[in-house]
Structures are given as structure tokens and as C-alpha cells.
């Protein structure tokens, strides 16, 4: 069973892309087959894995979404790149902006990305979708394609208002398009250990959005080394293997995998009882 996870937050610069890279490569290091999907016209995920235009980007997510909209066929693994740390990438670039505009007038406009992902996901244990900082059509498409959402939140900002909007959007997608969508939780990023903001934010999130909202135990520390990785084309595990950020992303990777087994147990428990 493939698990499709969207990394979403319409607030910019909260660590979505950095988390996509280091969760993806962390999962690959644990022996999982992983596809990263760059669903952001900024193409940061593609860049930060070291793939720069115009080399080998003649086919990108925009190309394949356009073909999907036009019901044109494409090769099964067309455009998929491989990064030497063990993950595959469907690259994204500025052409996604045009695709997002044309989605508006397309039939099944919310499920074009899902159709694409459904066509490739059989090869993977995990598909991680790096969303853009907006709640536009591409993010809706990512939520429609996903089994679950992880929301990275920068620990020194009160996420109050934007968070409500995001949770409402997730709930609406669940009601109208994708009933199986669940919220895996909030990941606190760029946590400065000298302050106690992270604790306050966990408290406020739970107070305002309910005890059921999971805030991951792992917090990603503020780390210059983590910020450097995007320019290096490598993960934190290679760039600074003994640092705190590498340790945190490895722990977060384990936590994400344990959610999968928790849910399987819960379902097993349910079926056992309904027999
Ligand atoms: N743990 C960290 N400590 C310090 N800097 C970080 C950390 N994680 C990410 N950064 C830096 O913060 C910036 C924003 O991170 P990132 O690009 O991952 O966020 P994003 O949510 O994907 O942004 P956008 O909304 O623009 O897509 C980047 O310059 C990144 O290198
Ligand atoms: Mg990003």
C-alpha cells in the first residue's frame, strides 16, 4: 500500500520543502521506495535536490498534468528523475503557474494531480507532495490526491488565523472530494532552543484546535546547516550527519512511519471487534 502525504501550509517559508527532502530521503534510508512530487511553481524542491533548468527538465509535473487534462497518454515513468540519495523526483517549475490557471476551466479540476499520482504510485511506498504556499487549485489537487497531510509550522510565529483556514480547507476537501484524507499532524520547525515558543505553540494549537490535533513529538531545530542544504543539492544527513537537524529529521521519519502502523492496528482492532 502506497501512502501519499501532502506537505501543506499556505504560509510561505515554514519548512515544507526542507521537510519533503529530509523526510523523503530519511524514508529511503529506511529502505522505502519514495517519490517526491514538486507541486510548487517555485520549483524549490527540484532545485534543492540539485536539478536545475534547463538540464533534464524537459518533462516536468506541468507537462504531465497538462497531458492528463487533455486526456493524452504518456509513458509510465516519463520525466521521473533519480537522486543519488535514493529518492525519485517528479520535478516542478514555473510552468505549473499556467497549469494552475487552466485547471480552473477543466473537468475534474480538483483531481488532475490525483490521476497522475494514481498512474505512478504502484512503484512506491511513499509519495510526498511538496505544496506551494497558497490554498489555490494545485494545493487543493494535492489534498485531493493525498491520504494524509503534514503541516509544518514555523515555531516562532503564532499560526492562529492561517491555521483555521487551512484546517477548514482540509475539512472541505475531505467532505467534498477525498473522504479518506486525514491530518497526520503539525510539525514544529525552526525551533530555537533558547526560547520556549515551541511549547507555547503546541499548547495554543491544542487549545484552539482540540486535543485531537497531533503535534509531532519531534521538533526540527533552527539550524544554519539545514538552511544550507537547499543550495547543496543534498539532504541534511549528508551535509551535516552528526548535527541536531539530521538527528531530528531521522526521528521525525520514524514518527511518520509509526503513524502508519498505529492506524493499521486501530483498523485491525476495529475489524476484530466487528466480527
Ligand atoms: N530547520 C531550519 N533551520 C533554519 N533554516 C531552515 C530550516 N528549515 C528550513 N530552513 C530555511 O528556511 C527557508 C524556508 O524553508 P523551506 O523552503 O523549506 O520552506 P517552505 O515552506 O517550503 O517555503 P515556501 O512556502 O516558499 O515553499 C529556506 O531558506 C530554508 O533553507
Ligand atoms: Mg517550498
From TrEMBL:
Residues 2-181 form the AAA domain. It comes from Paenibacillus naphthalenovorans. PANTHER family: COBYRINIC ACID AC-DIAMIDE SYNTHASE (PTHR13696:SF99), P-LOOP CONTAINING NUCLEOSIDE TRIPHOSPHATE HYDROLASE (PTHR13696). It comes from the Bacteria. Gene3D superfamilies: P-loop containing nucleotide triphosphate hydrolases. Dimerizes in the presence of ATP but not ADP; ATP-binding is required for double-stranded (ds)DNA-binding. Interacts with DnaA. InterPro entries: AAA_dom, DNA_Partitioning_ATPase, P-loop_NTPase. This is Sporulation initiation inhibitor protein Soj. It catalyses: ATP + H2O = ADP + phosphate + H(+). Belongs to the ParA family.
Amino acid at each position: 500500500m502506497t501512502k501519499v502525504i501532502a506537505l501543506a501550509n499556505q504560509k510561505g517559508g515554514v519548512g515544507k520543502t526542507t521537510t519533503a527532502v529530509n523526510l523523503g530521503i530519511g524514508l529511503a534510508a529506511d529502505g522505502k521506495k519514495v517519490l517526491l512530487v514538486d507541486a510548487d511553481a517555485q520549483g524549490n524542491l527540484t532545485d534543492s535536490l540539485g536539478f536545475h533548468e534547463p538540464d533534464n527538465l524537459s518533462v516536468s509535473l506541468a507537462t504531465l498534468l497538462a497531458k492528463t487534462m487533455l486526456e493524452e497518454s504518456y509513458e509510465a515513468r516519463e520525466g521521473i528523475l533519480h537522486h543519488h540519495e535514493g529518492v525519485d523526483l517528479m520535478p516542478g517549475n514555473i510552468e505549473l503557474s499556467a497549469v494552475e490557471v487552466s485547471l480552473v476551466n477543466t473537468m475534474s479540476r480538483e483531481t488532475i494531480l490525483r490521476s497522475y499520482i494514481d498512474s505512478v504510485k504502484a512503484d512506491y511506498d511513499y509519495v510526498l507532495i511538496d505544496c506551494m504556499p497558497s490554498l489555490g487549485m494545485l494545493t487543493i489537487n494535492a489534498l485531493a490526491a493525498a491520504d494524509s497531510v503534514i503541516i509544518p509550522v514555523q515555531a516562532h510565529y503564532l499560526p492562529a488565523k492561517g491555521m483555521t483556514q487551512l484546517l477548514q480547507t482540509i475539512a472541505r476537501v475531505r467532505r467534498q472530494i477525498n473522504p479518506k484524507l486525514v491530518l497526520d499532524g503539525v510539525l514544529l520547525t525552526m525551533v530555537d532552543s533558547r526560547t520556549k515558543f515551541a511549547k507555547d505553540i503546541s499548547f495554543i494549537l491544542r487549545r484552539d484546535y482540540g486535543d485531537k490535533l497531533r503535534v509531532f513529538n519531534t521538533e526540527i531545530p533552527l539550524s544554519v546547516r539545514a538552511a544550507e542544504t537547499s543550495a547543496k543539492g543534498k539532504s541534511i544527513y549528508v551535509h551535516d550527519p552528526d548535527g541536531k537537524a539530521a538527528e531530528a529529521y531521522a526521528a521525525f521519519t520514524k514518527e511518520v512511519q509509526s503513524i502508519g502502523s498505529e492506524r493499521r492496528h486501530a483498523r485491525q482492532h476495529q475489524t476484530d471487534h466487528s466480527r
